[in-house]
């Protein structure tokens, strides 16, 4: 049997939506169209995406429809229940999630916070949904003075822990996140990811570093990546993909520092001779 391709490079543009999904009302996302709204007022052309057929999917500013697109194009909706990072990526690899992860719009239960404080020996502050950059602006100096853990969440089923690298060294922060990951595997919490969010700098000038680390649950079943790996194909994960799948089905993990670094790493891998 011959295969049509020896290699497939799958690029995921995270959060680049092209219109509301059928279940948008369940997530207060009615009327959403991230790509269209981003391109409104955009004064540059996107000729390559246009030639591939992006503008044939939906009417978009600066990206028109073409008569003979150079690629196949379509618009898909998730079959899984949920819209978070893990649910979407797992489904792309053939694993549907019918029991959604839990989100915490009012913060995490006090029972969980108490357990985190007990196992880490550190006090927890914030415990609510927050912007990652805003929360360190507001609480970063407090964290430096006290050594407390800045714990927050978002619209996704994530528990994020921020700490200044000079106050809580990376290895300690990672160890804390691993312990919290074990706590939140309990079905009553069902948190998708625990994320270490280290930052540096002085009050008023804090910046998050590239030393972020995600601690995800293992996929609930085998994925296409497992099948490929089991049949001796290479599965190279760039950026946070290895974390999202907790290393399952991955043969090589490539860490990245930014979106641009991710594309640079991809261009290097494209030059390699491999099958997968």
TrEMBL record:
Metalloenzyme domain boundaries: 6-261
Official protein name in the record: Phosphopentomutase
GO annotation, biological process: metabolic compound salvage; nucleotide metabolic process
Gene: deoB
Top enzyme category: isomerase
Keyword terms: Cytoplasm, Isomerase, Manganese, Metal-binding
Cellular component GO terms held in the UniProt record: cytosol
EC code(s) of this entry: 5.4.2.7
Record-linked PANTHER family: PHOSPHOPENTOMUTASE (PTHR21110)
Top-level taxonomic group: Bacteria
Pfam families the record matches: Metalloenzyme
Species the sequence originates in: Staphylococcus coagulans
Known cofactor(s): Mn(2+)
Single annotated GO MF: magnesium ion binding
Transmembrane intervals: none
Family indicated by similarity: Belongs to the phosphopentomutase family.
InterPro entries, alphabetized: Alkaline_phosphatase_core_sf (IPR017850), DeoB (IPR010045), Metalloenzyme (IPR006124), Phosphopentomutase_DeoB_cap_sf (IPR024052)
